[in-house]
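Crash report, auto-generated. Payload:
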Amino acid sequence: MPSSISNSDHHVLGRVVPGQRWPRIFLLVVIIEILCVASWETFWRAHYFVPDDYEDTPAVWQMQRERATGGATVLIGSSRMWQDVDLTAWQRVTGTRPIQLAIAGNNPRPVLRELAADSQFHGLVVCEVTPYLFFIKPETATVEFMHRGRAQTLSQRASNRLGLLLERRLAFIDNETRISTLWKRLPFPLRAGNLPVQAVPKGHVMRADRDTRMWARIEADPGYRALFQRLWLFYAGGPQASLEEKPPGVATAYPGIVGIVEDVAVQVEADVEKIRARGGDVAFIRFPSSGPVYLSEARGFPRPMTWEPFLARTRTAGVHFEDATQLQGYRLPEWSHMAAGDTERFTQALAPLVLQAVAQNQAHLSH
Amino acid sequence: MLFNSLTFAVFFVIVLGLHNLPLPWTAKKINLLLASYLFYAAWSPPFVILLWISTAVDWKVASWISAARSARRRKLILALSLAANLGFLGYFKYGAFLMDNFAIALRGLGIAYVPPSSNIVLPVGISFYTFQSIAYSLDVYLRRAAPTRHLLDFALFVTFFPHLVAGPIVRPTLLIPQFQTPRRADSGQLLWGLGLMTLGLFEKVVLADGFLAPVADVVHKSPHDLPALDAWAGALAFSGQIFFDFAGYSTTAIGAALALGFALNDNFNSPYAAMGFSDFWRRWHISLSSWLRDYLYIPLGGSRLSERRTYVNLMITMLLGGLWHGASWTFVAWGGLHGSFLAIERWLKTMRQTAGVRPATSALAMSGTFLAVTIAWVFFRARTFTDAWQLLCSMAGATSNQHALLYWSDITIVCVIAAGMLAAQWRLRSTSLEAVVSAAPPWSIVLLWTGMAFALIAEQGAGDAFIYFQF
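Recovered output after restart:
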């Protein structure tokens, strides 16, 4: 038996350090590394990337969620609410800077449910309705996104804040510039069944408070814009000639949509009532879309079967872009989202319409 | 706190700075201890209490064992230590699993029983520090060592942040003596330590998380049958992912400790270059396999008893080793598979001695071992047996679905990384990284180090947790 664990005579483990001139090697590594990173940053700045553009992570979303309390105005929905609304313009028009809680590509109903369950919240919720995402898409991804935001450890919260400091200064910190993403973007041939592009490419720039715009490259680079168009066409269900041949109506509607809308409306109505009981309210918006995307939405989700019965059942205010000329005529380069330069004007037109619709609806309900 | 996080980068710079201040050795150890508690609390502060309890119980128990005169009393005190350590582990890690299986057993007897819903949170790294504490009590009980006299040294042994949450599982006889005398890394140790940290983080952030995990995840989460190519690419991706994830963690831990002047034991030694399964387990998660050998397999009798008993001991060790990884029957099945591999290998060796079967060539042995290990990983990664079976059927080509899930870019990168991994491990099979680096021209080290660091920065990393944190 060794005399003691405390006795270091026999048991101290040593590690071999390779025989090299380490200080000189390390100095060279540091110098070359600084040059490489500086070149990398310069390269991406020359390719549409800018500093002060943040990754939309659950952590960043959660920071905004924690601000959504009291009588705040909260924007929820998917990528159109996220990209088409200019928070500063909304603030200029209404006097209140809204909190952006839209989650791109996902169903916003879990966010509405959480706000309804939050006894501290008694503000206005403005919710985007993009028919497929709102009525059909499973809530799982949204729930997971929200959960990941809530479940951060102290260490993750600290890392997130440190990360924001770096993103403020460095343009290359972006999902699109990761080497694993760059690899995915290489022009490998597609296999049967593959989406036209692996994962939705970068389409936005986002500030730390999630105020978001379309990325300049989509407007400036026709090839890049076409990438998005191909992707939306794929989601829209195939060759667009067939969409145009079939006008919207019962025959082209999403199977069982009437019942689905009724079920969703019942759930949403309960959430709306909870918020109203605390003095808040909820309004819905249908954002502009164009081209094949509009046709696909109009064909699969005709207004008389979705938008109108939904608003009637939930007894809520709604603003549909087709009903207001001031919400039409904006540039939608890839048919689904608004050009960055148009969002200020669009928001200035939208915000008063929303407040007006809410006021009219409240007056209607009180009678 | 994750090694692959900005918080850790700041934390480590501060700890390194404090450790190099001209302070008394005891003050430096207190700094390291407090830093280690902070490292753990950054995940969940309340669970630091578990560390305190584990530390206090084992420190006290070991001194009682050492002082006890009768064998019966020593045994009783050891039982107390085991009950405390395994009790914590059992409650937090296996509580829900046991209740669910108890309910299933009752249902089998026709008794309807629904266990209360369980929201037990698994304290990160509990399996690692529990095994480390148990090793201390057992070493004292088995008279392999006497207890340490200083609580500070013992607390630091349990809590030392580089190995705390995912190993290597360090033996008390290896680490505690290092806390006895002042230690500070010289420039070679500091810079080689930083180099190892770069290598470990490169493996984790770039190879495991950046390239392999997305492929492995999409394949393993697919609810559908897959073409054989996709299924094999997913299985191969997970083989690479789990190696780079866990070996990356161990390498970073070893590097961080070395930069502070401490030496941790190796945890991996080119495991995918193993020729046979006993060779594999001498190279994969070495600190766990040697723990299981010394504290379970040998006390069970090892190979000292009958041949049949040796096979039983092997299987018990591997089944429990599987269960150590997680409270699920799929982990037990994974352990059982490896137990079977080891048993078959042992039997073949016995046959070879008597029947004179010629050994396979080394490349074939390595390929066969890697193939079997990769197939066994399917059970390790799958959430259910149904999922595992579905993927195995897809790998066997026994499906009609030819709808591609992966892209060529996925399949290509998995093949490239797997080929590189196997080639590197083959090269390092009979030597060490240190020996290779010693012989390498300095410019190649500069190039490689810069390349890895740049890839690390360019990949950025999403701060994904290490797989072994959950064990």
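Post-recovery validation: Residues 90 and 351 of chain A are 6 Å apart (CA to CA).
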